[in-house]
Amino acid sequence: MATEEQLALTRALSGDGGLGVEESKLVSIIGKWRKKPDEISSFRKSFNRLFSINGHIEKCEDDHMQKLAIEFSRFHHITLLWVMHPHERDALWAHQVTHKNHHASILVEIACTRPAEELLGVRRAYQTLFHHSLEEDVAYQIKDSKSKLLVGLVSSYRYEGPKVDNDVAKSEAKALHNAIKTAGANKILDNDEVVRILTTRSILHLKKIFKYYKELHGKYLEEDLSGDALLLQTVLCFDSPANYFSQVINDAFKEGAKHMEKEGLSRVMVSRSDVDMEEIKEAYAKLYGAKLSSVIAKKTHGCFRDSLLALAGVTNA
Amino acid sequence: MATLSIPNPVPSAIEDAEKLRKAFQGWGTDEKAMIAVLAHRDAAQRKQIKIAYEDQYKEKLLKRIESEISGHFERAVYCWIFDPVERQAIMANIAIKNKVVDFPVIIEIACINSSNELLAVKQVYQSLYKHSMEEDVASHATGDFRKLLFALVGTYRYDGEEINTELAKTEAKILNDAITKGEYNSDEIIRILSTRSKAQLQATFNCYKDAHNLSITKALSTKTPNDFVIALRAAIRCRTTPTKYFEKVLRNILQKSGMDEDALTRVIVMHAEKDLKEIKELFQTRANMTLEQAVAKKTSGDYENFLLALIGN
Which parts of the sequence bind Ca(2+) (chain B) (predicted)? Predict the structure, then answer.
């Protein structure tokens, strides 16, 4: 019969069942098993995910150790991200897209949800860190159909004032509809007008376009773009960033979530904590019928969990 | 260096405003008096004069000037009065809203300024016109011009000195491939030209010249000049050798038949408080006459006097 400590230790070191590690539990077991090498030895023999017999010892498995390293360091990682200058943070994430094959959606996220001066600050930070402009690296490293959209989005320095030309917005809603209807699947990105509108117009203007789109054509633009993930994300980031960020968080908690999707959780919580966390909590509850803080408490562990709750503005875990 | 000459000591803004007022009063206008003041004050001084004039006489100086003088002289003074940043924003807007986008103006503004100077122009543009310069360029220009101008205006380029020689060689080859195939509007040409730093771009063009014994601008000279290729060459020259570019523009205006006063005004006004001295010196060696002589030959009246005052007579 496994003891409570053995079960707890197995759970903590399995690397499943949530993100992060229950540090306090581990510390208490370390205390309980002091001067009880048999307990540890029998744990090693029973926990064959981490250990395998090699000669006279139960050796630690490299793969599993790497997995554990990630879980143990989620708190470390999020703390460093939190303490960093927001522009350096965004620049590092952007660089991971251009140089480490991270998903282009991160570029869209940064380019579309940061205000114009912030995005400019990110580009300056990128230059300081990497001695290249972000635009030149995106244009050079990404040469497929996404390139025009991505370069345009990261280059943008949008007008942020209140003035919107309704007639132009109406005609551009029609132009978008036209482009979507006439393009084949996956070809909407090739349409110059689509790219022009999304990469240059002010966000207020774009929101007007989205409104007219629904009025004139009966469907939301998002519905008609459902075949193109990047375009869909772009529109969502402009129209409702809180919904977009809720989706990223939800993706991190899904069954079978990949490493990059899990990283999205830390990225969103740190980058939005001071910006629109209240709106995100509201949107999350509407979309998924659960309180974000409850989901975090259930699906994450230890200091990582506590830091997420703190970033979410939850004072009593 | 600037060719603008300012008297020492310089009169106060109020004195200058009074002189201008006197120049406007009575029948006709005393253009010489206007030129004596306006053509010999820097941007900060001109701004103070505008403020002093409006405070004192309760009317906008620019409006008064527009009603007193006309033609090329008026257009030149109008452009000149603003500070360089606002001036470029205004000129960009005029160029964009033209029936066909006046691409040389946009290319010049996008390519000769440093990244931060261009940013300042874009900021003023937004406050004046309630649109970003990028969005206006993109919605008014079409086809290949849109691609090129948008990329040149929109990129916040790295201004550092580092050069990657391998990359320069690779990109010189990419340029050559596109040029050989006659694909002047290729995305790669536009990408390299609009996103690489000045130092990197220069290195790339040097590699090109080494490899093909021909400068890239010569390689882009086609027998039948097409506007887009002209634009490419202008962008290349503005990004790497702006003094030579503007010298050539002046020489083309002043030594060929016909006359483009708007272009002449633009070059003189935009460079008088910046680097017209170097352009002038180069002009003299190339044209076998001074810039003053060339301008005097082809212009007349108050317009000529104004330009000569800026050139540094």
Answer: 24, 26, 28, 68, 256, 258, 296, 299, 304
The answer to whether residue B90 scores a pLDDT higher than 90 is yes
Angle at A155 between CA A150 and CA A156, to 5 degrees: 105
Alpha-helical runs (H) found in chain A: 4-14, 23-32, 37-46, 62-72, 74-83, 86-99, 105-113, 116-130, 134-141, 147-155, 166-182, 192-200, 203-217, 221-224, 229-239, 241-253, 259-272, 277-288, 292-299, 302-311
Contacts of A132 in chain B (CB under 8 A): 158, 197
Residue B223 has pLDDT above 90, yes or no: no
What does pLDDT average to over chain A?
93
Q: Which one, of B62, B61, B106, B114, lies nearest residue B88 by Cα?
A: B106
| Cβ-based neighbour number of residue A262 at 10 Å | 17
Q: How many helices (H) and strands (E) in chain B?
A: 20, 0
Give the total residue count for chain A: 317
Which secondary structure element, helix H or strand E, spans residue A60, and what is its range?
Answer: strand A57-60
List pLDDT tens digits, range A289-306: 999 999 999 999 999 999
**Residues ≥6 apart with Cβ < 8 Å to A246:** A280, A283, A284, A287, A288, A292
Which uninterrupted H or E stretch holds B95? helix B84-97
pLDDT digits (tens, 9 = 90+) for B245-278: 999 999 999 998 889 999 999 999 999 999 999 9
Are B196 and A136 in contact (CB < 8 Å)? yes
Is B185 near chain A, with CB under 8 Å?
no
Chain A contact for B134, CB < 8 A? yes
**Strand locations in B58-116, DSSP E?**
none
Cα separation, A23 vs A3, whole angstroms? 19
**Cβ–Cβ of A161/B126 closer than 8 Å?**
yes
CA distance B64 to B57: 11
Query: How many C-beta atoms surround the C-beta of residue A315 within 10 A?
Result: 7
Contact B289, B295 (CB under 8 A): no
- Compute the nearest-CA separation of B149 from chain A (Å): 12
Closest CA to A140 of B22, B164, B24, B8: B164
Which pLDDT score, from 0 to 100, does residue A232 have? Answer: 95
Q: Is A156 on the interface with B (CB under 8 A)?
A: yes
Tokens encoding B155: 């990129």
**Which ipTM did the prediction report?**
0.90
Query: A159 and B131: CB-CB below 8 Å?
Result: yes
Residues of B in contact with A128 (CB under 8 A): none
C-alpha to C-alpha distance for B2 and B275, rounded to whole angstroms: 5
Residue in chain B nearest A163 by alpha carbon: B130
User: Considering only alpha carbons, which residue of chain B is nearest residue A156?
Assistant: B154
Decide if B126 touches A, using CB distance below 8 A.
yes
Its pTM stands at: 0.92
Residue B179: alpha-carbon gap to chain centroid: 27
- For testing the chain B interface, which of A122, A132, A193 should be mutated: the one with the most B CBs within 10 Å? A132
Q: What is the pLDDT of residue A317?
A: 47
Neighbours of B177 (CB within 10 A): 13
pLDDT score recorded for residue B212: 94
8 Å CB contact of B156 and A136: no
Distance CA B232, CA B217 (A): 9
Is the Cβ pair A158, B197 closer than 8 Å?
Answer: no
